[in-house]
Structure prediction request, 365 residues.
Amino acid sequence: METSTLKNTALSHIHEKLGAKMVPFAGYNMPVQYEGVKAEHECVRTGVGVFDVSHMGEFLIEGPNALALIQKVSSNDASVLFPGRAQYSCMPNDKGGIVDDLIIYMIKEEQYLLVVNASNIDKDWNWISQHNDVGAEMRNVSENYSLLAIQGPKAAEAMQSLTSTDLSNIKFYHFEVGPFAGVDHVIISATGYTGSGGFEIYVKNEDAEKVWNAVFEAGASYGIEPIGLAARDTLRLEMGYCLYGNDINDTTSPLEAGLGWVTKFTKDFVNSENLKKQKEAGVSRKLVGFELVDRGIPRHDYPIADADGNEIGIVTSGTMAPSLNKAVGLGYVPTALSAEGSEIYIKVRDKLIKAVVTKPPFYKG
Prediction:
């Protein structure tokens, strides 16, 4: 992809100035790493690091029928939300797969914010619009907002000087709307993709640079560093979190992918009848975590085999986990081989590398 056709975030020029290695990602010019994956990964696990994830999509769904539309397109039960509460969910398609996974925020009565994956913004918007026969008001505000993920065990302490909101009081998957770094009405959300705690901060593009600078000033004595997408991937994989396009996609069922916990049959939603039948019948394959016993590194799309070398599945994500110093991955295998402790083999350059099915998270920090 030509760099000239890539979109920049409000902060791309800062990443370039900091010497980040920039790569095309979901149509955006994004920092993949600064100092190096291992150092950045460690910074988040033990201290505090900042990701620019402004490429993510944001939709506002509003009005008296906002909840009805969200309930129809999402698998989780959004009726339990209240202002200040967020929820992880997925949008099933009508063929048994997943349109996208997303986070739903209830901002106030009759107003919800849906945060979707960057590569799926247009697809998701069209999908939700297509199902909006209830007249909910929809606004795609993806181009107007920047998103900073300030992650790590020192995040609350490092950022407290920037807000009057008590950060240590915001529980996981809860959020506050308040002042942050001199900007009013900022969403401060105790969510993230790393498993090391922290916050996701939603600000308007025009305030992004001011907030970025304030965050780094406030965090200086805590060893705060900018973190790229490569470490974001190793951090989420150590937790066993799904990445859309790798571990889940248009052909993977939420039940196969281990997302039964966000698939609530207490309501009707797109394809709920078929998914309910699938749950009753049982799935024939499952997404599992695994750790390598032998030396090697599993990669996306490497075949998974049984002891006889028969191909039985595929690796969806894999890496050498920096916090664990061992190779881990996710992949789909037949249900019969999905139990913890099952032996499977990863084909690495025609060699069978022994692995054992392990229940994520791999990192227990």
In short: The helical segments are 12-17, 37-46, 66-73, 121-130, 155-159, 205-219, 229-239, 272-281.
